[in-house]
Structures are given as C-alpha cells and as structure tokens.
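User: Hello! I'm new to structural biology and keep hearing that structure can be predicted from sequence alone. Could you demonstrate with DUF5615 domain-containing protein? Please show me the input and the output so I can see what each looks like.

Assistant: Of course. The first part below is the input, the amino acid sequence of DUF5615 domain-containing protein. The second part is the output, the predicted structure written as tokens.
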Amino acid sequence: MTAFLIDEMFPPATAELLREDGHDAVHVFDVGLQAADDAQVAAAARAYGRAVVTENVVDFSVERDVVLVFVLKRNLPAGGAQAAGLAKVLDRWAHANPQPYLGPHWPPTD
C-alpha cells in the first residue's frame, strides 16, 4: 500500500483520516517540513518511500524518482469537508494503484 506525505496546502486532518482507514500517511507538519521548499519535501518522500500529495504541479515538475499525486483544491469540497474529501480520493487511488509508478498521477476527484 502507498505511504503518503501530504503537502502543506492540504489540512493536516487528511493524514489523520487516512491513518484511521489503515493507510500510512503523514502531513509535512508531522515531520518538521512545514515551510520547507519543494525539493526538500520531495527528497524526504523519496528517502522514506512516500508519495507526495500536492497541487503544486509546476514546483514538482522537475522531480524524478518519486511518486507525485496531484490533486487540485478547487476539485475538492470547500471548508471543513476538504480533509475528508481528499482522504476519500487518496483511499480510492491507493486501492486502484497498489504499486504506483514513479512520476505524476492525477486521481479522479468525483
């Protein structure tokens, strides 16, 4: 199963909800990477075998050898429902992609 590293634009509660569903998930705040540059986030994900969950397509476009899961916030429920909506998207994606290839992924958000 894919382990996740949730980037800072998403709520920390996303990682918590994923863990409750049996996933290995941490938020950048959990591992001391708040306000870290994207290269550091990618390096940490690579080192610990985690997929980066982000909406920063351009910022991560140069990264290689890491699983990148791109989700646009505008495609998620607003406000307090965002964490649950993202957790649902990632849960479905993880089950459909038990061994994801390195590189960009765009899970459906509907």
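User: So the tokens describe the shape?

Assistant: Right, they're a compact way of writing down the 3D structure. Reading them back into a model, for example: The beta strands are 3-6, 24-27, 50-54, 67-70, 103-105.
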